[in-house]
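Dear Dr. K.,

Following up on our conversation at the group meeting, I've run the structure prediction for Phosphomannomutase from Mycolicibacterium chubuense. I'm pasting the input sequence below exactly as I used it, so you can double-check it against your construct before we proceed with anything downstream. Let me know if the numbering doesn't match what you have in your notebook.
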Amino acid sequence: MSRSAEAVRRVIKAYDVRGLVGEEIDDEFVSEVGAAFARLIRGKATKVVIGHDMRASSPALSAAFGEGVMSQGLDVVAIGLASTDQLYFASGMLDCPGAMFTASHNPAAYNGIKLCRAGAKPVGKDTGLTTISEDVIAGVPAYDGPRGSRTERDVLADYGDFLRTLVDIGGVRPLKVAVDAGNGMAGHTTPAVLGVIPSITVEPLFFELDGTFPNHEANPLDPANLVDLQSFVLETGADIGLAFDGDADRCFVVDEKGQAVSPSAVTALVAARELSREIGATVIHNLITSRAVPELVAERGGTPVRSRVGHSYIKGLMAETGAIFGGEHSAHYYFRDFWGADSGMLAALHVLAALGEQDRPLSDMMADYQRYESSGEINFTVTDAPAIVDDVLSAFGSRVHAIDHLDGVTVDLGDGSWFNLRMSNTEPLLRLNVEARTLEDVQALVDEIGTHIPSETASETKELT
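The predicted structure tokens came back this morning:
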């Protein structure tokens, strides 16, 4: 496969490596990326831990990456099938850099690599990916030292044991837990983490590892992909439903009535639990989580810190502030005790512990953390997003109570209502999030803003927040 500089930069993105297998990435390419990654970390590390998801292309690609690493004199520890947070665990436990082969919730034809330094510290555009990209474009220089070696290590049980040390789950009442793995890596990790807890009965849905995703996309952010779990919860009489994405680093929650629970409410719940053991700690939330999150954090004696959307910003602030916890609208949850990395399974353990420590059903318990109504994230495909944003701001005029530009534009209307408009960095999309005190107020704002988006250029999709 011949590759231009443009083609390499298109695949080595701001936060990870991702592309179409056979067209944009192949064994030769990922071997070069592995060699470039080894050059980047040589002198600071002697080995790299590598894991992969269930996609058909993942074993061969991860092996080719390992060949590139070893060609540069570093050793490889191969952990085989893993969730992304299992790879982060291995990076933290072994104190070495890591590479996870996954394309998360993308279709089967895609694959990619999530890279981290020792202790699960992320590698992004400004922390190594640009250097890797330029090395691959120029051609990675050969290494004249001894070749590295490869060992295999199974860390799944260690991963499960470690997570259970972070959440006291021993005294919870019996719970029936429906889990939709979406044919992704939660089918591999759930039995090792939840299946060994005596008080928990796991009701499995789509646990067969299948990178073609035959039942639905492994992207629970889209409400359409929660429908099977919602029905399954009602069918099995489960106390709670959990849905994971393809690489199982995100977790979505469904209550006993089959209703989706907002990730903002989950963020508030986990924040309250973490603050109960460290009063005054910092909690990170991104700017489109519910305003209930910073309110509840402050009420519990914590310090809320607002972040731009995106894991690199959250993880950076986690390290900078020493925050105990961070949460995003997309159901990424970050824990100081997990090397500042995100783990959907650890968030799930917190929700299960909270539910099992009291007698109320999940719907009642989560009502304590749900103060506002939201639109979810609505994506509009547009041709001139900046002009539309300007038009919206002009139309609201004197009704604007406060405004900021941390990530796109966030408009506070001063009555408990706010909205955020931000442009995608990679697609011609304008993303809208609205929050208000009632669903009627939310819909009214969505409708009003929608009148400023030209119908001939706009198409709308909605994702759960």
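Two things stood out to me. The CA atoms of residues 436 and 461 lie 20 Å apart. The first strand starts at residue 17 and ends at 20.

Best regards,
J.T.
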